[in-house]
Amino acid sequence: MSKHHSLLQSFGAVMVLDGESRRIQAVSRNLNKLLGLADTELRAISPATVLGKRLSQRLRQELHGRQRLASPLAFRRLHDTTRLQVHAYRTHRHVVVEIEPLSPLGKRRLLGTVNERLMRLAEATHQEELLDYLVTAVQQLTGHDRVSVCHFDSDWHGLIVAEAQGGHLPALLGQRFPASDFPITLRRTYERHPIRLIHDASAHAEPPLPCTPEGESVDLRHCFLRAPAPERQRYLQRLGVRGAMSLAMQGDTGLWGLLFCHSAAPHPVSPPVRDAVRTLVQMATQRLLLLRARQEARYLQRVQDSLVLSTNARVEPQSPVELLSAQAETWCSLFRAHGVALWLKGSVYADGHTPDAAVVAQFVKRLDKAHRHSGPWCTRGVASEPLTESLNMPDQCGILAVPLPMSVAQRGWLIFFRPEQVETLYWAMQPTSAPLPPVMVAPSAAWCEEVVGKSEAWQRVERLAVMDLGEDLTLAISAYEISTLNMHLERERKALAAANQRLEQLAHFDPLTQVWNRYRIEQAIDAELVAAKRYGAAFALLLFDVDHFKQINDTHGHSVGDDVLVSLARLVETSLRGCDHLGRWGGEEFVVLATHSDMDAAVGLAERLRSLVATLHVSGLDQPITVSIGVAIWQPGDSCKTLMARADAAMYRAKRSGRNRVELAEERVT
């Protein structure tokens, strides 16, 4: 254990008890002063003498069988009205008790202020508005000179995206901090301890605690009062900061960013204010994730609105050339591309700024060998990517490609191209090994880097959307092939029979799970709508997807993700009635068409499927598999689109309510 892990900040004190919390084993040197006691040997007295009998008993009771107190406890000093706060947790064979003073704040006033700010955060409709209000509210609560929100990109570089100024430190808004400032050990620490307070980075730390009577040193790595490490002190010194507080902003897939509070002078922050700030940050983070989810949903809807290919193909199938000509401009706009190419059976169809057909063919040949799973492939640096660096693509810097499963033996490819986007980055601290100045430079003199040879990054939602587009395009092309072959029925009956069998399978069944695909389940829903309208036969749609499926793919690989989808589809399909139907709606989403089902029967079926899926085990996956299910019951006047929209809204409500649950869709307003 490093020596600095045993040093403490002086604004609080530490007392170490035995595992039963009955005897004092060690104390920090400043505990007597904090408690207002005479300079005496505290280890000679009991915890009840220091904390009071009632608080000492409560401490033992609440720590019984627990790792730490669920919430802090408060008590008064023996000889005056000074109030103190206690945090306690277990480490090895000891109980570490952290004690710090409570400032005389008006609790009701603070609670009212926090509630008002929480309501303002809940009303924010854009990320910029949300974060700007968050930093302003925190700066007003804490009084720090500067409060900033730092967002991490995929390489763990930090960008200051919001800031409130209140004093003597320069602005950092728009500047970046290199990933080396946020090593993985520091990021993992924030997962366990989301808030960190440094009262005075330049203050002398309290010396290490004395050893326990058994000669053991006490591990204080998880102590809130621990002093900053020397490298962190030097880092804050370069920033011109003495008082600092930072809070983690946890996203749905990890650390989204940090909120920094900095002051040029020592700056205390009382526990109630820290708790208030933490509540605001948690609320803002949840609102931020919700706003992002809504934005992504709107984008996906725009892409889905352009996916009319399979519907049109039923009436008037289009050739790949016609499809590309009709849709290329819309697709390029949606995916912020300047060119798109379609590779099918050795032929290249292109629109906009794309490489030569021979170069596209060579790229597809390499891609087919290197990229075997069904997800998209992308890069933003063609010249530095091993797969493309030797290809002649002078006008391209970014590529997004999605496979089209035309048959078991052969795939087509839909490929988007992006140009170079020269980007100027302003770094608050130079991301190199060059010597750093003793104090951070002014913003106007921040280290500037011009990034060349890269395109805009492909966003996660774009990678999801291109998979939907690829599936729909596959159906449209398959429908065209069927139509073309049918025109030659008389002359090529034998060849057409074999081709029709293959194309029928491709047009109606999902190639991975072998259940009905979206096109086929839509047909069945349309037929059931006609029957319901004519005879009043009730039916229901159950829309569900796999919880945390992206995490499964990222952690265990796409092959395990594919196994999950195949196993789940097989389990659900074999448990349905003969009159019910299962289809893959797209990605990890599935839909069950439950015929002759009222509300009670549909909800009962959904609960049975949810429980059944929870028993599923997939080789190579050690976590349980769960689904969130939305149930929509047919109402007169419903269409396939309105039914699916209500089921989709119910499913996302199930996700927001904790996942692994069933939600019934709201009735359609007529």
Automatic annotation (TrEMBL):
Keyword presence, Glycoprotein: no
InterPro entries reported for this sequence: Diguanylate_Cyclase (IPR050469), GAF (IPR003018), GAF-like_dom_sf (IPR029016), GGDEF_dom (IPR000160), Nucleotide_cyclase (IPR029787), PAS-like_dom_sf (IPR035965), PAS_2 (IPR013654), Phyto_chromo_attachment (IPR016132)
Domain Phytochrome chromophore attachment site, first and last residues per copy: 126-286
PROSITE patterns in the cross-refs: GGDEF, PHYTOCHROME_2
Catalytic activity, as annotated: 2 GTP = 3',3'-c-di-GMP + 2 diphosphate
Highest taxon in the source lineage: Bacteria
The GGDEF domain, residue ranges: 537-667
A Pfam family per the record: GAF
Keywords attached to this entry: Chromophore, Photoreceptor protein, Receptor, Sensory transduction
Organism from which the protein derives: Vreelandella piezotolerans
Protein name: diguanylate cyclase
E.C. number: 2.7.7.65
Gene3D superfamilies: 3.30.450.270, 3.30.450.40, 3.30.70.270, PAS domain (3.30.450.20)
